Amino acid sequence: MKKVLVVCGNGLGSSMIVEMNIKAALNDMGKEAEVSHTDLTTAKTEQADVYLGSEDIVESLEDGKKNVVKLRNLMDKNELRAALEEQNL
Fold first, then answer.
1. What's the pTM value of the predicted model, to 2 decimals?
2. pLDDT tens digits, 31-52
3. How far apart are CA 49 and CA 78, in angstroms?
4. Cβ atoms 62, 56 nearer than 8 A
């Protein structure tokens, strides 16, 4: 099962909402993944198949090895679903 890590500055509000939206979207798509949320500092040491968050936050995770997905609008469910589909989740 793939692991999706939702990243935000503090790992509290927005990442928790996005985590819930991802779980709902995956359910609608008939897909499964392990989804959790965290802050940027912790995300740098966590292992995941996909790191997802706002452009300004997750771009600092890019190291050539991590699969980083940048979202323009964290609350846009259509953008989120398209990103999940693109990642084959």
1. 0.92
2. 999 999 999 999 999 999 999 9
3. 21
4. no
CA distances from 19 to 26, 29, 42, 70 (A): 11, 15, 16, 15
Q: How would you class 10 by CB atoms within 10 Å of its CB: exposed for 0-12, middle for 13-18, buried for 19 or more?
A: exposed
The amino acid occupying position 66 is K
Q: Which amino acid is residue 46, in one-letter code?
A: E
Scan for tokens 């600092």, then name that residue: 60
- Residues 51-76 pLDDT 10s: 999 999 999 999 999 999 999 998 99
Closest CA to 22 of 1, 36, 38, 40: 36
